[in-house]
Amino acid sequence: xxxxxxxxxxxxxxxxxxxxxxxxxxxxxxxxxxxxxxxxxxxxxxxxxxxxxxxxxxxxxxxxxxxxxxxxxxxxxxxxxxxxxxxxxxxxxxxxxxxxxxxxxxxxxxxxxxxxxxxxxxxxxxxxxxxxxxxxxxxxxxxxxxxxxxxxxxxxxxxxxxxxxxxxxxxxxxxxxxxxxxxxxxxxxxxxxxxxxxxxxxxxxxxxxxxxxxxxxxxxxxxxxxxxxxxxxxxxxxxxxxxxxxxxxxxxxxxxxxxxxxxxxxxxxxxxxxxxxxxxxxxxxxxxxxxxxxxxxxxxx
Length: 301
What we know:
Layout: H1 2-27, H2 32-42, E1 59-61, E2 67-68, H3 70-79, E3 82-85, E4 94-99, H4 102-117, H5 127-133, H6 144-150, E5 170-172, E6 178-180, E7 188-194, H7 199-214, E8 221-227, H8 231-240, E9 246-248, H9 252-258, E10 265-269, E11 275-280, H10 286-299
Helix pairs in contact: 1-2, 1-5, 2-5
Protein name: TlpA family protein disulfide reductase
GO molecular function: antioxidant activity; oxidoreductase activity
Keywords: Redox-active center
């Protein structure tokens, strides 16, 4: 009888390890609210294993050793492109963010699709895992807009300040039409400072064009690109790479007004002449924030 009890106890602890590991894997396939439900309930299970699940208090570093915020690493986990790993040498509650191989990403997406389609249910897990999952909803595929909103805000330019009225400029676009910031009051003005030799400037142009297309019939939105290059060079470039903003050539003097030295710099000015959004460099969700700010500015009285 004594030996039977010892074996039963060893079996219990072994099964507990598998339960916690399986629950951890399931957690990262579900949305944030479901993950928190799993984590909270698993922590109530009796344990001597000490298997901790990553949360907002965890220290997560990328491949360069940079410490990431919870939103940064959690977003990449949800997207299915990365995973958290730790070794016995890592301090407690510290992890490394590792990019999954194409094969691993494919497998993860496949598993997630099975959950979303209902072909693989959480109820297929052992009873202990079912209790941990509880009534948490299945993961739903985020829309592109939801994914962009979840990413960290783009870096501000330092040349403009949200909530302030910027200095005026007097410019003429490449069609000879006058562009005066004060005269554009009452319209939403979208500015882009760029130059041809700037890779991120070129990278965002297709996405900026989509924003223009979305407001093509609205005379209350003005898109103005202030380029540093000569007129002839911009004409040659845009002839091959369409850029649907109104173009201003040789715009260094305009950039100097605001002290713009980081490119691209994007700015959205509302109908009252106040800066509502500004950013520098290329971020995947910059176009999202530009368009969101345009729509909010148009809707405002």
